[in-house]
């Protein structure tokens, strides 16, 4: 394993689909005394790289100064900024599009007060640097959801996330989470062990009851311990199978929504409207002609909610996705829209 200049791990081998590998990491937890220290010596290479800022508005600098006034240590200053973002702003994937030439962070902090995790992380990083605290934006994945049937965490594309790390002299890089509803990965340290034990215990109990029932004569299972064993075993098995069916149903609905969005892109591409790699789904929907824009926006909102917003599935999701796709195809056929760039 190698480490690149951005402190990212690089595998010496190509990671092919289906390859199984393990990663063991140690999450440092700085002590309260270390975090309470005042400003120490920041290494020159850290200062040169992670205090850089683009041209930002004076009110962004003033906000950073106001939020950290009277706060001593860099970590406590960073916490003051983080709390401000978590309690005064709203996480959403449906934030309005930026006006022309608008600064994304300035617009987020003083106008819309809502946005995705990228906006929360960008605002935190800019405010930290404006306060003289080295910071860097990090993109990756959250810990995902715990799978009680396998004992592992399931991490999907919808778990993609952005957060910030600040540099504290003597402690190194410390994770900072500003997006409401998300917790730092350090808060999940220690959870898997207990959950694995619980899953193992449930498997052991189920196996024990199955073995007991198998050893009982069929004619003696009318009551007593035998009936209780059968009842408990049946309950556990039904619960497991029910959970698996629920899991398949949830993934099925998610798959229908994602396929619906892919079908929309294919339908529009045939008319010359292709989504550029740099465009977000919402930006692409907003760029479409008026006849198809409303229904395309509906399909896009469904897709973003399930792909990135951790929205729970419901019985009407697949029907709504299919209906919207039918409407889009009908509008495309009737309006005969076609991009000029396709000719």
TrEMBL record:
Residues 109-180 form the Transglutaminase-like domain. The lineage of its organism: Bacteria, Bacillati, Candidatus Sysuimicrobiota, Candidatus Sysuimicrobiia, Candidatus Sysuimicrobiales. It comes from Candidatus Segetimicrobium genomatis. The chain crosses the membrane at residues 221-244. Keywords: Membrane, Transmembrane, Transmembrane helix. Signal peptide: none annotated. This is Transglutaminase domain-containing protein. Pfam families: DUF4129, Transglut_core. PANTHER family: PROTEIN-GLUTAMINE GAMMA-GLUTAMYLTRANSFERASE.
